[in-house]
C-alpha cells in the first residue's frame, strides 16, 4: 500500500452535503459524474489533491443509519490549518457548529466541529 486517496461519507442528500462542505467549510468540488443512476460526487481540501471525500448517497437502511454517525462520538477525520483561531471564527460566522472554543494542547491547537449531519471533524493547528 502507498496512500489513502478517497474515503466515503454517507449523506441524506448529496446536493445539501456538497453545499455544506464547499460553502461552509471551503472544500472544492473534485468530481461530479453520473454513472447511470449512480452519482460519483467527490470533494477535497483546496490545497490537497491526494485525499478526497466521496459524498455518497445513503440508499439502504444500514447506510442511512450511518449518516451523521460514521465516527461514533469521535471525529471521522481531521483538517490541518495554519491558524485554528482564525478558521474557527470564520467557520462560526458561516454557521458551522463547534463543540467548544479552540484549545491549546501540547500537540497543537484544536477544536471539534460538526458537519450538517452531526459527523465530528477535528480542526487542528500544529504547535509552533
Topology:
Layout: E1 6-11, H1 14-24, E2 28-35, E3 38-44, E4 52-57, H2 61-66, E5 77-81, H3 84-93, E6 97-98, E7 103-105, E8 108-114, E9 120-125
Parallel strand pairs: 1-4, 5-9
Antiparallel strand pairs: 2-3, 3-4, 6-8, 7-8, 8-9
Q: What would you report as the Rg, rounded to the nearest angstrom?
A: 15 Å
| Overall spatial form | globular
Q: How many domains?
A: 1
CATH architecture: Roll
Strand content: 35-45%
Helix fraction by DSSP (H/I, runs of at least 4): 10-25%
Question: Helices and strands, in N-to-C order?
Answer: EHEEEHEHEEEE
How many helices? The count is 3
CA(first)-CA(last) distance: 32 Å
CATH domain topology: 2,3-Dihydroxybiphenyl 1,2-Dioxygenase, domain 1
Largest sheet features: 5 strands, mixed
Helix/strand structural class: alpha+beta
Q: Quick one: CATH class?
A: Alpha Beta
CATH superfamily: 2,3-Dihydroxybiphenyl 1,2-Dioxygenase, domain 1
In total, the number of strands is: 9
Task: Give me some keywords for this one.
single chain; 128 residues; alpha+beta; 2,3-Dihydroxybiphenyl 1,2-Dioxygenase, domain 1; 5-stranded mixed sheet; 4-stranded mixed sheet; 9 strands; globular
Amino acid at each position: 500500500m502507498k496512500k489513502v486517496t478517497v474515503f466515503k461519507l454517507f449523506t441524506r442528500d448529496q446536493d445539501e452535503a456538497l453545499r455544506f462542505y464547499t460553502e461552509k467549510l471551503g472544500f472544492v468540488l473534485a468530481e461530479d459524474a453520473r454513472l447511470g443512476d449512480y452519482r460519483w460526487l467527490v470533494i477535497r481540501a483546496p490545497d490537497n489533491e491526494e485525499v478526497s471525500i466521496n459524498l455518497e448517497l445513503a440508499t439502504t437502511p444500514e447506510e442511512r443509519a450511518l449518516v451523521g454517525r460514521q465516527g461514533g462520538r469521535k471525529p471521522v477525520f481531521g483538517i490541518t490549518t495554519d491558524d485554528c483561531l482564525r478558521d474557527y471564527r470564520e467557520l462560526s460566522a458561516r454557521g458551522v457548529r463547534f463543540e467548544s472554543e479552540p484549545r491549546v494542547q501540547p500537540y497543537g491547537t484544536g477544536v471539534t466541529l460538526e458537519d450538517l449531519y452531526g459527523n465530528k471533524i477535528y480542526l487542528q493547528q500544529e504547535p509552533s
